[in-house]
Design brief:
mainly beta, Immunoglobulin-like, four-stranded antiparallel β-sheet, three-stranded antiparallel β-sheet, 9% helix, elongated
């Protein structure tokens, strides 16, 4: 605000809508991850989506929470963002997707959500 009030040009501090690709390439981290669910003939498909720099390759890990609170791996680290759950039986299940940069060992972001299996 001080820069604006003193009459300085602050236009270079922001990206415009026409600079979206430039903005994405400037990001150097995974900022958040989530997943969307969609019922298919094969089962419930979960598709992870990460907001990250366009130069960052992301890997995903899917887990399910057990009754004792522990987490069981549904699918280990993969660049494939989609997991299909073919389990049957109506119930709620807590699922988590974890994201990290390809080639690293430390998770950067995760998203936890309760889903309903049919």
């Amino acid at each position: 605000m001080r820069q604006i009030e003193s009459g300085e040009d602050v236009g270079t501090l922001f990206f415009g809508y026409d600079q979206w690709e430039e903005f994405l390439s400037s990001l150097e981290a995974i900022y958040f991850v989530y997943f969307e669910e969609k019922q298919t003939e094969e089962g419930l498909a979960l598709e992870a989506k990460a907001c990250a720099g366009s130069n960052i390759q992301v890997e995903y890990l899917f887990e399910r929470q057990e009754a004792d609170g522990s987490w069981t791996v549904l699918r280990d680290w993969s660049s494939d963002p989609t997991l299909v759950l073919s389990e049957s039986g109506y119930r709620n299940v807590n699922v988590r997707v974890v994201a990290r940069r390809t080639g690293t060992t430390e998770p950067e972001r995760y998203h936890y959500q309760t889903i309903t299996l049919l």
